[in-house]
Write a structure and sequence with these properties.
The protein folds into three domains: 48 residues; 91 residues, Roll (Ubiquitin-like (UB roll)), CATH 3.10.20; 385 residues, Porin, CATH 2.40.160. Helices cover 11% and strands 52% of the residues. The chain contains five helices and 27 strands. β10 and β11 form a beta hairpin. α1 runs antiparallel to α2.
Length: 554
C-alpha cells in the first residue's frame, strides 16, 4: 500500500508540473504536446486511474495497542440509506419498511472485544471480516478514537443486505435445464435467523427443500443450529446440526453434533441411511497471527436396503484433521464480487485430514478404506496483481492397495491495472491414478470448459485454462444491480495415462458473457450468462452454447 500511495503522489506531481508548463496548451488538440510530454502524461493517467488492490488502513487500525475500550456503539443501517437524496425515493423507502434492520444485540454478539478489554487492532480487523461474512451484512466498518480520558470509543457500523428472496432461478447448460421457485429470508425479524422453502426441478428431477438456521441457540453465544428437510418422489431426507465453530483466530475450541436420516430409491429397492456424529477441535496457542488446530470426529453410519435380499451396513468412521495457517489478509474488490469488499488470506496454509472406519465385529462393521488427504495454499500480491495458489492430494487405501489417487494444482491470477476492468487467468491440472471406473475426472460446461456438453470428456488426467477480461459496465444501476461484461477463452482436455495429450487434442472455445450482480445483497455474486462457441467440437452438436449459472467461472 505504501507503494501505491507513492505511485499516486508521483502522478499528482506530474500533473502539477504539466499544468505549470502547459497553461495555454489544448491537450485535446495536441498543440505543443511533444512525445516526451505525451508519455509522461500517459504515465500520469495510469498513476491516477489505477486503483489500489487493497484498501488503505483506516485510523481505527492504527491506534496504539493497550488502551482500554470504554464504549461500543452499534450503528445498524437499513438496505437503502434514505438520508441520502439519491436513495430517498418511494420505492427504496417501501423496501426498507419491508426489511427488518438487524438488531444491535445480533451485531454485538459477533464482536471479538468488549467494553473493558484492551484495544487490539488485529481483533478489530478480524471482527470486520467476520461481519462481512454474515449473510445479512453487505458492508461493515469499525472506527475508533481516543477520548479525553485516554480510553477508546469504538463505533461499529453495519449496512444490511436485502435478505428476502423470491426464488425464481433458471439455468441452462449443455442442453439441460434447471428451474427453482420458492421463498427465502436470511434475516428473520432482524434476528439473524434464516429460513427457506424452495421447489426445484434439477435437470428433470423434482424436489422440495425446507431449511432453517439460527446463529444462536437460546442464549448460548456462538452455538448455532440448523435443520433441513427434502422430499421428492421416493426420497425423504432430514438433518439436524448443532455446532460452535472456530469463530475467530483466538477461539480455543470448537465442537459440533449432527444427525441425519435419508430414504431413497436405489434401483428397484429402497435404502434407508441413518448417520450421527460428533466432532471436537482444539487450538494450540491461539494467536491473531496464525492458526494451529487439531480436529477429531466420530461418525456412526447405518444403512439398510429393502427387497428380496435385505442388505445391512454398519460403520464407525474416525476422523482426524489439522490446520496450520499463517494469517495475512488482503481486502480487495472486483475479484469474485463487483462492488463489495472481499477478504483473502495470503498466508501459507496446510490442511491434512484422515478418515478411517476400522473393522468392529460386535457392530458388524466391515473394514472400509483409509482416506488420507491434504490441501496446501498460498497467496501473493504486488501492485494491482493477485495470485492464489492451491494444491491437493487424496487417495483411498484399502487392503494394501492404494487407489483413487488424485493430485491437483490450481492457480488463479488477477490483474486490476486498468480502471473498471479485471484481467483474470486460471489454470488447473489434475492427475489421477487407479481411479474408480464409475468416478473418472470429468470436463465440460460445469467444469470450466464452456461451449461443450455437460461431462463431455472423461479420463484420468485433466487440464484446463481460462482467460477472462471482466469489464465492469455499471455499478449500482438503479441502486440495485451491478452490470458487467466478460470476454473469455477456454482451453482444456481430459485424457488417459496411456495416451499422452498433444496440442491438437485440446478443446478450445471463445465467447462473451453478461454478469448481473445484486448490489444490495451480502454475496454480491453475479449471475453469469455465457454465450460460447466451441472451436473444435464434434459435428453432431451445436457450435454455440448458452449457459446460465451462478458465480464467476473461477
Amino acid at each position: 500500500m505504501a507503494g501505491a500511495r507513492l505511485f499516486k503522489r508521483a502522478g499528482i506531481k506530474l500533473l502539477k508540473e504539466y499544468r505549470s508548463k502547459n497553461r495555454d496548451t489544448d491537450l485535446l488538440s495536441g498543440s505543443g504536446l511533444d512525445s516526451q510530454t505525451f508519455m509522461r502524461y500517459l504515465i500520469l493517467l495510469l498513476c491516477l486511474c489505477a486503483p489500489p488492490l487493497a484498501a488503505a488502513p483506516r485510523e481505527a487500525l492504527r491506534l496504539p495497542a493497550g488502551l482500554i475500550i470504554s464504549s461500543i456503539t452499534v450503528e445498524s443501517h437499513n438496505v437503502f440509506e434514505t438520508e441520502i437524496p439519491a436513495e430517498n425515493k418511494l420505492a427504496y423507502r417501501a423496501a426498507n419498511r419491508i426489511h427488518s434492520t438487524t438488531r444491535d444485540h445480533v451485531i454485538l454478539r459477533e464482536l471479538l472485544f468488549e467494553v473493558g478489554d484492551r484495544y487490539n487492532a488485529a481483533l478489530v480487523a478480524e471482527t470486520e471480516r467476520n461481519l462481512r461474512a454474515l449473510p445479512f451484512v453487505r458492508r461493515a466498518e469499525i472506527t475508533a478514537k481516543v477520548n479525553k480520558n485516554g480510553a477508546v470509543d469504538v463505533i461499529v457500523r453495519t449496512y444490511d443486505s436485502w435478505t428476502l428472496e423470491i426464488v425464481a432461478n433458471y439455468k441452462r447448460a449443455g442442453g439441460a435445464t434447471s428451474i427453482k421457485a420458492g421463498l427465502a429470508e436470511g434475516n428473520i425479524l432482524g434476528q439473524g435467523k434464516s429460513g427457506s422453502a424452495v421447489y426445484s426441478n434439477d435437470w428433470g428431477a423434482g424436489s422440495a427443500d425446507f431449511t432453517y438456521k439460527d446463529r444462536q441457540f437460546l442464549r448460548y453465544k456462538r452455538l448455532q443450529y440448523s435443520m433441513a428437510a427434502r422430499t421428492a418422489p421416493g426420497l425423504r431426507s432430514l438433518s439436524l446440526v448443532f455446532e460452535r465453530p472456530f469463530y475467530a483466530s483466538i477461539a480455543r475450541t470448537a465442537m459440533g453434533a449432527t444427525v441425519s436420516y435419508t430414504e431413497a430409491p436405489v434401483g428397484t429397492v429402497s435404502r434407508r441411511v441413518v448417520e450421527a456424529g460428533v466432532n471436537y477441535g482444539i487450538s494450540l496457542a491461539p494467536s491473531t497471527e496464525r492458526t494451529r488446530r487439531v480436529k477429531f470426529g466420530i461418525l456412526a453410519h447405518r444403512a439398510e436396503s429393502t427387497g428380496p435380499v435385505p442388505d445391512r451396513e454398519r460403520l464407525l468412521t474416525l476422523q482426524l484433521g489439522a490446520e496450520w495457517e499463517e494469517l495475512d489478509f488482503l481486502t480487495a474488490r472486483r475479484i469474485q464480487k463487483f462492488t463489495h469488499d472481499e477478504d483473502y488470506n495470503l498466508g501459507f496454509g496446510i490442511f491434512p485430514s484422515l478418515a478411517w472406519a476400522p473393522a468392529i465385529h460386535p457392530l458388524g462393521a466391515r473394514q472400509t478404506p483409509l482416506l488420507p488427504s491434504i490441501i496446501v495454499r498460498k497467496g501473493f500480491t504486488w501492485g494491482n496483481q493477485l495470485l492464489l495458489l492451491n494444491s491437493g492430494y487424496s487417495s483411498k487405501y484399502f487392503k494394501g492397495h492404494n487407489g483413487n489417487i488424485i493430485t491437483s494444482f490450481d492457480a488463479a491470477y488477477f490483474l486490476r491495472g486498468i480502471r473498471y476492468q479485471t484481467l483474470a487467468c486460471h489454470t488447473n491440472v489434475d492427475l489421477g491414478w487407479r481411479l474408480d471406473p464409475a468416478a473418472p475426472l470429468v470436463l465440460g460446461e460445469f467444469n470450466g470448459l464452456r461451449g461443450y456438453g455437460v461431462g463431455e470428456f472423461t479420463g484420468s488426467r485433466r487440464f484446463l485454462l481460462n482467460i477472462e477480461d471482466r469489464v465492469y459496465v455499471w455499478d449500482e444501476l438503479f441502486r440495485l444491480m451491478d452490470v458487467g461484461l466478460v470476454f473469455f477463452y477456454d482451453s482444456g482436455y481430459v485424457w488417459t495415462a496411456s495416451s499422452p495429450i498433444e496440442l491438437a487434442d485440446l478443446k478450445n472455445s471463445v465467447g462473451v458473457g453478461l454478469r448481473l450482480a445484486p448490489s444490495r445483497s451480502a454475496g454480491n455474486s453475479p449471475v453469469r450468462i455465457d454465450l460460447a462457441r466451441a472451436l473444435n467440437g464434434s459435428s453432431n452438436r451445436p457450435t454455440w452454447s448458452l449457459s446460465i449459472l451462478g458465480g464467476q467461472a473461477f
